[in-house]
């Protein structure tokens, strides 16, 4: 997808799917970033709020490796459904709140599992997960 397409999708009104859809977001992370500390912070806060529109792929699995040390698998109910050259995806709007329900931490990769949390108990306690529209950590 091109940046201008992502920008237009980010402005579109999210659609309620009526059911949960599982999406995977593989975040690009710099080598110096301590991903385990970030994962621990997100787990202890109980969730995260997306600060930017983020594309979650429906038919992509976690991609571990250099530069991709953090992945988020989330079940969401709202977003903008998109068909890309590589398959299907959902554009999650900025402000989407996710409740972290688990994690899988290995030496070189962390996967967080989350569900959409429309009304978190304490929004101020949530960590903020920033990124650009393609899922790269800002």
Note down, in words, how this protein is organized.
The two termini are 19 Å apart. By secondary structure, the chain is mainly β. Strands 1, 2, 3, 4, 5, 6, 7 and 8 form an eight-stranded mixed beta sheet that branches. It is built from two helices and eight strands; from the N terminus they run αβαβββββββ. It is globular and about 35 Å long. Strand 6 (97-105) and strand 7 form a beta hairpin. The protein has a single domain (3-129), classed as Toxin ADP-ribosyltransferase, Chain A, domain 1 (Alpha-Beta Complex). Helix content is 14%, strand content 44%. The protein has helices at 3-11, 35-45, and strands at 15-27, 47-50, 54-57, 70-84, 87-92, 97-105, 110-116, 127-129.
């Amino acid at each position: 997808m091109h940046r201008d397409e992502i920008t237009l999708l980010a402005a579109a009104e999210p659609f309620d799917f009526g059911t949960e859809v599982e999406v995977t977001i593989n975040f690009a992370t710099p080598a110096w970033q301590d991903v385990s500390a970030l994962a621990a912070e997100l787990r202890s806060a109980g969730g995260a709020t997306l600060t930017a529109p983020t594309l979650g792929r429906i038919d992509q699995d976690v991609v571990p490796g250099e530069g991709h040390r953090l992945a988020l698998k989330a079940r969401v109910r709202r977003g903008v459904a998109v068909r890309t050259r590589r398959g299907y995806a959902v554009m999650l709007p900025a402000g989407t709140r996710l409740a972290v329900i688990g994690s899988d931490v290995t030496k070189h990769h962390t996967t967080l599992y989350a569900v959409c949390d429309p009304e978190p108990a304490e929004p101020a306690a949530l960590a903020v997960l920033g990124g650009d529209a393609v899922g790269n950590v800002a």
